[in-house]
Design a protein that fits this description.
By secondary structure, this protein is α+β, with helices and mostly antiparallel strands. 26% of the residues lie in helices and 30% in strands.
């Protein structure tokens, strides 16, 4: 209670930003979470994106590019994979860049894991087994399993892996703060969304009729109806994309830099608007997006307008 009061006092005195306030409140709530044993059927509450694996046609080229463009911090590396870290106040995210082998989908994003609010290995394993998910251990701090469409996901403890302390030593273009939103395509987006909602205690808000906004931490998870003639993420063995929130976002300067780096077409007029996120591609021509933090709350607004509904005032109904 004292920590919450302190955060509110700082907010009133304008010594913390709205985003810092939200993060502090979320962290305080997570610390106060009850043990799983106190619940009959515990739900696993994600609080940020723990990790994801990026299959790269050229690992070194991909790693160097993400460090230069998004200021990612290099960790463990060997001939097969390199760890890149990003994140800010609420939690760290690990992007594992792997050198693609024969038969791999590359470029592509696979194996994504959520950090959950409370960790008890036995309780988590028991709950996953109760749901017939056949969990596979990842040390004593995580489990991998598959969703109904074959996407490999995991749940992890806060201290699953320690981020290196060394900081980037050379200038970078942007600083990646968090994953902004993650899109997974499905032949039945509502059915898949319900499965995730039942297992993971997301805060679900807007359903547009073709996708649905489900919140955890700073990020929204977007089960999305696969376009006609296209394959789902499960069939393609890759997520559609993972957008990145950057520090100090400015539409015009971001768009011009994306053009200079050939990440969007020269004919794009993105810099003339006032958007909070710009669709683009990365060094491997894989779909991506560079966003301001406010783009994630904007997902609700955009989807409400698609349905002809008045947009909500904020991402969580008036916060």
């Amino acid at each position: 209670m004292k920590s919450i009061e302190a955060l509110l006092r700082k907010a009133q005195q304008a010594t913390v930003t709205r985003r810092q306030l939200l993060k502090g409140l979320a962290a305080t709530a997570a610390m106060a979470a009850l043990p799983f044993e106190a619940e009959a059927n515990p739900k696993l509450k994600p609080i940020w994106l723990n990790q994801y694996t990026y299959m790269a046609p050229d690992m070194k080229k991909t790693v160097d590019w993400y460090i230069e463009v998004f200021g990612m911090q290099k960790g463990t590396a060997n001939a097969k994979e390199t760890h890149l870290w990003f994140g800010d106040l609420q939690g760290d995210t690990l992007m594992i860049v792997k050198q693609a082998q024969a038969g791999d989908t590359a470029p592509g994003i696979t194996k994504f894991g959520f950090t959950i609010n409370y960790w008890d290995k036995n309780a988590v394993e028991a709950e996953l087994k109760r749901r017939d998910l056949n969990p596979q251990s990842d040390t004593d701090k995580g489990f991998w399993f598959k969703d109904p469409e074959g996407n490999e996901i995991g749940v992890f403890a806060h201290d699953w892996m320690k981020r290196p302390t060394a900081k980037p030593t050379k200038p970078v273009l942007w600083k990646a703060l968090s994953s902004n939103h993650i899109v997974v395509t499905s032949p039945d987006y509502r059915k898949l969304a319900n499965w995730y909602l039942d297992l993971l205690a997301f805060n679900e808000t807007t359903d547009s009729g073709r996708d649905v906004v489900q919140w955890f931490g700073d990020t929204c998870w977007l089960p999305t109806q696969v376009s006609q003639g296209k394959q789902s993420s499960g069939a393609l063995k890759t997520l559609d994309h993972c957008a990145l929130t950057i520090e100090k976002y400015d539409t015009k300067s971001v768009a011009l830099e994306l053009k200079r780096r050939k990440m969007i077409p020269e004919t794009s007029n993105a810099e003339t608007g006032n958007s909070l996120g710009i669709n683009c591609v990365d060094v491997n021509n894989f779909k991506s997006q560079v966003c301001a933090w406010d783009e994630a709350p904007g997902q609700d607004r955009n989807r409400a307008l698609q349905r002809g509904q008045p947009p909500r005032g904020s991402r969580r109904g008036g916060e």
